[in-house]
Amino acid sequence: MPQTTLSGKTYCIRTFGCQMNLHDSERVSGLLDSLGALEVSGPAEADIVVFMTCCVREAADTRLYGQCSSCKSLPAPPSGRRVIAVGGCIAQRDGEGLLTNVDNVDVIFGTHSIAHVGDLIAEAFEGGGRQVRTEEHEESGATSMPWHRATSYHAWVPIMTGCNNFCSYCIVPYVRGREKSRPMEEILDEVTILVRKGVREVTLLGQNVNSYGRDLFGAPRFAELLRRVGDTGIERITFTSSHPKDLLPETIDAMAEVPAVMPHLHLAVQSGSSRVLKLMNRRYTRERYLELVDAVRDRIPRIALTTDIIVGFPGETEEDFAETLSLAERVRYAQAFTFIYSKRAGTPAAEIEDPTSRDVILERFNRLVKVIETTAFEYNQGSRETTVAALIEGASKKDATKLQGKSPWNQTVLCPLPAGARIDDFVGKVVDVRVDTARTWYLSGEMVGGPR
Ligand code: SAM
Ligand code: SF4
Ligand code: F3S
Fold first, then answer.
1. What is the three-state SS of 353-395?
2. The domain at 387-448 falls in which architecture?
3. Ligand 2: residues whose CB is within 6 Å?
């Protein structure tokens, strides 16, 4: 068989959704690069446009249609023909169905079929017609493919794919399949290579990293993985997401004892009402969640706790919501992602009747956001007059004369770029910042000493 080539073709990738998709896009990009294609900045100059889609909420779902249609009005690309490929979770969910809904899509590849995207695109260019590949159980091989990191200093490292939890509102287990852990040695080899290449921070990815290894070893081994990744010499380890029902004491110990593990834990609560948590199939109660928070704070007192909360789960009452508010006030989150419940066809929650009006849900949502803004502001006050080590990511989007970075507690940190210096001299470097201002969403102050 002739070797697939996309030599001379240009491509761009538009990514929606979570870090899983961001990383899958890096794999797609690495694959297209290895076939000779060249990345360009936008669809107008691209022969190949790839959309990596998300369907976790309705808003994400509907965006795809607009994006695909907007490609129709673009000028012809350099090669004279443009191939549009749709990957990610909508592709996996809808498969061929997308061809009828979006008439200018040429390639559909599911979340398990990333390794085939080059062949599918090449086939579409060669007049092979519209291509669809969404087999669920194929070994994608994606984690051993070349990949193209967005930055030199940070890497997403998937440690597992899929999800076994079937929270009653969530579509992810249906589109990403069952939990599958990567072999521990493969992950460690990957991180070791990344360290050699100068990567300073890795984010270990999974829908529920706490159950890492259950399918391989019969019991979770996430604590061991954290310790061994810590031994590779990587400077910063972060991870997401962590399901409260599987957060083990040994994992909290590893977080407290491995210096590279950052003092930040994203522990999605979803609701503060045990009644709603049961309907959500989360398999912990409000009390159990609060016990976990206490256990984590006992070992890591200044830890930045962040969370996800859904407002307006079907049948949520004012009393249920009051429990969510009081939980948020009690935990005092450093940050939270708050979502309005979105009905996803095929999930059990979609069958539950909901008499609550949209206005009531919006009003609850706004009350919750106020609480989170207050606790986030307060959390950041604890950093005033301290020196934080910020890993610099680039210029501030609002003010190009400022450097922007991340503290170990996942706070955004801003500081002025020294006179005569260039942003690029600092990207991927760590600088100490003496914090004089702490706002809800960022810290700022003066740099002390030089980059390292
Ligand atoms: N596996 C992660 C966990 O359990 O922490 C979550 C992954 S999901 C991509 C991210 C967040 O989206 C969830 O924590 C939940 O808050 C939110 N989410 C999922 N399904 C939703 C729905 N149907 N409506 C609103 N928000 C939803
Ligand atoms: Fe969705 Fe629950 Fe799995 Fe997270 S743990 S991906 S919320 S089913
Ligand atoms: Fe969206 Fe799929 Fe992630 S549905 S949130 S991109 S796993």
1. CCCCCHHHHHHHHHHHHHHHHHHHHHHHHCCCCCEEEEEEEEE
2. Beta Barrel (2.40)
3. 163, 165-167, 170, 172-173, 207-208, 243
For a pocket test of ligand 2, which of 170, 241, 313 has the largest count of ligand atoms closer than 8 A to its C-beta?
A: 170
Cα gap 243→209, rounded to integer Å:
8
Helices (H), 126-243: 172-176, 184-196, 214-217, 222-230
Query: From ligand 3's centre to the CA of 63, what distance in Å?
Result: 14
Which of 332, 260, 245, 246 minimizes the C-alpha distance to 297? 332
Which 8-state DSSP code applies to residue 350?
A: G
Q: Which two tokens stand for residue 354?
A: 């909901």
Backbone angles phi, psi at 93, to 5 degrees: -70, -45
55 CA closest ligand 3 atom index: 4
What is the dotted CATH code of the domain comprising 147-381? 3.80.30.20
Q: How is domain 10-133 classified at the architecture level of CATH?
A: 3-Layer(aba) Sandwich (3.40)
* Residue 307: C-alpha distances to residues 190, 204, 252, 337 (Å): 28, 17, 17, 6
Most informative mutation of 56, 167, 209 for ligand 2 (most atoms within 8 A of CB): 167
pLDDT in tens, the chain (452 residues): 457 899 999 999 999 999 999 999 999 999 999 999 999 999 999 999 999 999 999 988 888 888 888 999 998 888 889 999 999 999 999 999 988 888 899 999 999 999 999 999 999 999 888 899 998 766 555 566 677 888 899 999 999 999 999 999 999 999 999 999 999 999 999 999 999 999 999 999 999 999 999 999 999 999 999 999 999 999 999 999 999 999 999 999 999 999 999 999 999 999 999 999 999 999 999 999 999 999 999 999 999 999 999 999 999 999 999 999 999 999 999 999 999 999 999 999 999 989 899 999 999 999 999 999 999 999 999 999 999 999 999 999 999 999 999 999 999 999 999 999 999 999 999 999 999 999 999 999 999 988 99
pLDDT by residue (tens digit) across 162-190? 999 999 999 999 999 999 999 999 999 99
| 27, 64, 89: residue to mutate for ligand 3 pocket, most atoms within 8 A of CB | 89
- Domain ranges for the chain: 10-133, 147-381, 387-448
Element (H, E) at 118: helix 117-125
